[in-house]
Amino acid sequence: MTGPGKRPGPPARLSRESIAAAALASGDLESLSMRELATRLGVSHSALYRWVPGREGVIDLISETLIERIVPTDQPTPDNWRAWLGRLSWAAHDEFLATPGYATRISRPHRHTRGFTKMRDAVLTAFRVGGADDEMAEQSWYVFGTTLVTWLGAQEQQLLGDAPLRFDLFLDSLLRGLPTRETPEFGTRPRSTTP
């Protein structure tokens, strides 16, 4: 019971976890509506909006849930930081592609959520442990995060051709190419050969 002037809170049967779980179980995030999600949860449309402001809020909850699953619980070390990033990448591959529509959605430009901030911080730590200074760690995070998410989005949309996609080859190339120090051999802009 509420007192005078107090608004009732969200229904007790709803939680951030239950909303994320119902959305993940929906089968396709691209077509999931707030009304459908409310029905799955057995609550009114307005009750759901007390917990999340809309579809973007639901996607944020899903991101937080998936990132919790993919970031390894152990810390990277100077000896294993690339292997640690490999484990994170394989977990992202499995979790993101098991959620239809998710990899496609996050491969588009979007604002970062708390979940992605957690992943970013963990990856930055791995690069720093591997010997990168702060600037190089930021650059490597950007290359790593953008490339991984874009590749997974393209795989989900089957934009990479008809041949079987080898995530192991992609990931090996990505992780071998991520430097912890400046190595601009192939990244240096070529000199113009025109007079």
TrEMBL record:
The keyword DNA-binding applies. The keyword DNA-binding applies. Keywords: DNA-binding. InterPro entries: Homeodomain-like_sf, HTH-type_TetR-like_transc_reg, Tet_transcr_reg_TetR-rel_C_sf. GO terms for molecular function: DNA-binding transcription factor activity; transcription cis-regulatory region binding. This is TetR family transcriptional regulator.
